[in-house]
Design a protein that fits this description.
SH3 type barrels; Rossmann fold; Ribonucleotide Reductase Protein R1, domain 1; 3 domains; globular
């Protein structure tokens, strides 16, 4: 049992949303894990499993997800409403972009986990950074398996070029002393989430942070450094330092939409240079007086980084447009699949 809401991550942001009248009839609880049609919740002095159905729900974003704060009736524990979130990670649902798949809510810090081997992929890391910046959550890039890399310094050097001011941590996920550098993000009431492809050591990292081996792990293939998915349920794990860690199922591909602000923040150096282009609609290909092409020629901007920015910008525009179009068609057909 948990003795206080503060230990669960309750902050003034949430208390301001609850009126005295509501507080008399209801109590706040936090979603600790999500299952089909049910959520496990914890509140001051109790834990329970309740229905995730909201009578007045108006859409998919009204569904509770792990990390959410809810108001439930004190006697029946019936779900009343979801409190406004400080942050929400979601994405278009696989195979149906008209729906939204909720990943986690009210996250303070995002651990972007990648390993010092073949899994290290600049494009994937930048995708996670874009999403973190868009949502407004502090990203921390955690480089695992440092003990297995012949030269882990090269990965650290490349990672430092992704985002100015990005927190970088090089760890051996099995060594508590090495992982101790992450403790500052996991204090009482703080919530962190893990993202990264399968096989990078997320579950091992969770076990070390928890001081236990309750999370199953799987070996990786030597040929490509990839592993099997071991996390199947999004849930919150209590940490020895008093914080909470949300372990999400591995996502090899993170489809993005409506993340223009995140792209602009992660690639702010390139965005600043585009302002010096002669034409406002410059495609940065063959136009005269293109500041981007000049910067590439001078070595100020790397070709690979520029191409990743252009790809993400185009992908966001296409994905956002497709989602809006499909949702518009869905409204016209009364919600039936097109």
């Amino acid at each position: 049992m948990h003795s206080s809401l503060a230990q669960l991550g309750w902050k003034p942001f949430f208390s301001k949303q609850v009126s005295a009248e509501e507080d008399a009839r209801n109590q706040p609880v936090r979603v600790m894990s999500v299952h089909r049609g049910m959520v496990n919740v914890a509140g001051e002095g109790f834990e329970d499993s309740i229905s995730s159905t909201i009578p007045s729900s108006k859409g998919p974003v009204d569904r509770p997800t792990v990390g959410d704060w809810l108001l439930v009736e004190r006697d029946s524990h019936k779900l009343v409403r979801i409190l406004e979130r400080t942050s929400l990670f979601n994405r278009p649902a696989p195979r149906d972009e008209r729906r939204v798949q909720l990943i986690a809510a009210n996250i303070d810090t995002l651990f972007i986990v990648t390993s010092c081997n073949q899994d290290f992929n600049a494009a994937r890391i930048e995708r996670y950074l874009v999403v973190a910046r868009q949502v407004g959550v502090r990203p921390v890039l955690v480089l695992t398996k440092a003990d297995l890399a012949p030269d882990s310094g090269q990965f650290l050097e490349e990672a430092s070029s992704f985002d100015e001011g990005l927190d970088l941590k090089l760890v051996n996920g099995r060594d508590p002393e090495s992982v101790a550098c992450l403790a500052a993000y996991c204090g009482i009431g703080e919530t962190v989430a893990l993202v990264g492809s399968s096989g990078v050591g997320k579950s091992t990292l969770v076990n070390t942070l928890k001081g236990s081996k309750t999370i199953a792990t799987q070996p990786v293939r030597e040929s490509d450094g990839k592993g099997l998915h071991t996390t199947t349920v999004r849930q919150m794990h209590g940490l020895e330092g008093g914080g909470w860690l949300v372990d999400t199922p591995g996502m090899r591909e993170l489809q993005m939409y409506d993340v223009a602000a995140g792209v602009a923040e992660v690639f702010d150096d390139i965005m600043a240079i585009t302002l010096d282009c002669r034409f406002s609609n410059c495609t940065h290909s063959e136009e005269p007086e293109c500041a981007i092409q000049d910067a590439i020629a001078q070595g100020t901007v790397g070709t690979a980084r520029f191409e990743r920015w252009r790809k993400l910008t185009r992908e966001d525009a296409v994905s956002s447009g497709n989602v809006m179009l499909r949702r518009a068609r869905s409204r016209k057909t009364g919600g039936r699949k097109c």
